[in-house]
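Long-time lurker, finally posting.

We've been working with ABC transmembrane type-1 domain-containing protein (Lichenicoccus roseus) and I want a structural starting point before designing mutants. I don't trust myself to interpret raw outputs, so I'm hoping someone here can both generate the structure tokens and explain anything notable. Sequence follows.
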Amino acid sequence: MRAWPKLAVIALMLPGAITAAILPVLLNHPPSPAGLRVWRLALALPVLLTPVLASFWQLQRGEARAAASLGAKRFDRLRWIWLPQLAPGLAASLVLAFLLAGAAFLTRH
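Top reply, 14 upvotes:
Generated this for you. Predicted structure of ABC transmembrane type-1 domain-containing protein:
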């Protein structure tokens, strides 16, 4: 396994660890509504990026190189090679985002 996937996983875990360390301060002085949105995004981002990163690590890079050598432009490689391979991870991220938004809506109202 290459080194950068391990670093990416560690970087994805940082927002939760930082929040756990700062939580006592946040409880004494609650953030503004905008600050609360930033914290929610920072905590949801690892959950939403994990499926996309898993799909990205399994990409068949030889296909993109072959398409480039045959004259395919960048947009064509993105559209016909990269996006279909990333589609399962993107779909899983969208489902997770929908579930998180639904849970936030149900607990707020």
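Before you design anything, note these points.
The chain has one domain: 3-108.
Residues 3-108 form one domain.
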